[in-house]
Amino acid sequence: MKRIKIIENPSSGLQQSGKNLSLICEKLLNAGFELGKFRTRQKEDGYYEAIHSHKSNWDMIIVSGGDGTVNEVINGLSSVDSKIPVAIHSRGTVNDFASFMNIPTEVDDFVHMIENPVIKTIDLGRSDDKYFVNVAACGNFANVGHQTDKHLKAVFGRFAYLVEGFKEIPSTLSEPMKLTLEMDGKVLKEEAYLIILSNTTTVGGFEKIAPNASLYDGKLDLILFRKTANLQDLAQIFIKTLAGEHISKESVLYLQTSEVKVYSEEKTPVDIDGEFNGYLPKTFSAKKGGINIITSP
Q1: Max Cα–Cα distance, the chain, nearest Å
Q2: What is the pLDDT of residues 177-231, one digit of tens each?
Q3: pLDDT tens per residue, range 231-286
Q4: CATH class of 3-116
C-alpha cells in the first residue's frame, strides 16, 4: 500500500479547487492508499513539511497549490537530496509548471495519474542557494507576481497579472536596468527592462516565452528584453512574445546557459516561481536531474 503525503495551500485558487482535492482524497482512500494531509498556514510551511515527509518515509507527495507552494516543497526536498516523487494538483492562478507538464486538473484524470504514475527526473533552476522549478525573473516586471492582489488573482487569473504588469510600464520605460552578465568566460553589458531565466517554455501563463527550453538539458533559457526607444516598440515586442516570435528580434537577447552571474547598478528585485527572492547580484544555474515529478501515462 502506498503512503501519500498531501501538502495543501488552502488559500490558493478558488473554492472549487479545495472541493476537487477532497474528492481526489476520497477516491484515493477508496482505492486503498494511505493518506496524510498537511495545510500550510504561513510562509515556508511547505518547505519544512516536505523535509518532514522525507524523514517520515512517505512514498509520494501531492502538493496542492500554486507555483509558490510547489517551489517551497521542491526546495524542502532538495535541501535533503530527497528523491520522493511529487505530483502537482494545480490550484494557483497560473500554475505554469503544471500546465507545461500537462498534468491533469480533472478529478478522475488526476486519480488515474496517481494510480498509474509516470516518474520523470527533471532539471531544477537555482538562484544562489534557492531552487526554482520554472522561472527566475529580474527587473521591474519581475515583482508583478507577488505584488498582484491575491483576491484579484483568484478571480481573474492571468488577466490580473497583465493589469499589474501594465501599471509598471511607465516607470520601467524611464528606468531600464544597467546590467553586467558573466557566463561561459564572457562578459556582456546590457540595458534592459527584464531578464527571464526559464526551465520551461511557459512563463506567466504564456506558452512560448522560452520556446527552446527543456527540462532535461542541464541548461536555463535566458531571455533579456533590451531597452527600446518608446512604448510602441515595447508593445510590438510584447505581441511577438505571445506568439513566440520575439527571440529573433534585435531588442531581445535569447540564449541557453548552465550558469550566469547577473549584476545591476540599480537595486533590482528578483522573483523565482512567483515569490520574492531578494535583489541582484545573483548567480543562476541549472541542476540536472534535480527532482522527480509524477505525470500521466
Answers
A1: 62
A2: 999 999 999 999 999 988 999 999 988 767 788 999 999 999 999 999 898 867 7
A3: 777 777 777 777 777 887 888 999 999 999 999 999 999 999 888 899 999 999 99
A4: alpha beta
36 beta partners = 5
Residues with a catalytic annotation lie at 275
132-289, what's its fold?
Tumour Suppressor Smad4 (2.60.200)
The domain ranges of the chain are 3-116, 132-289
In this structure, is the dihedral angle defined by the CA atoms of residues 199, 201, 202 and 208, taken in order, positive or negative? positive
C-beta of residue 183 within 8 angstroms of C-beta of residue 261: yes
What element of type H or E holds 1? Answer: none
Helices first, then strands: H and E counts in the chain? 9, 15
d(CA 215, CA 121): 9
Three cell numbers, residue 278 = 531578494
148: helix, coil or strand?
coil
Quote the CA–CA distance of 277 and 297 in Å, as a whole number: 35
Length of the chain: 297
The number of angstroms, rounded, from the C-alpha of 218 to the middle of its chain's C-alpha atoms is 17
Q: What is the pTM of this model?
A: 0.86
Q: What is the DSSP string of 246-286?
A: -TTSTTEEEEEESEEEEEESS--EEEETTEEEEES-EEEEE
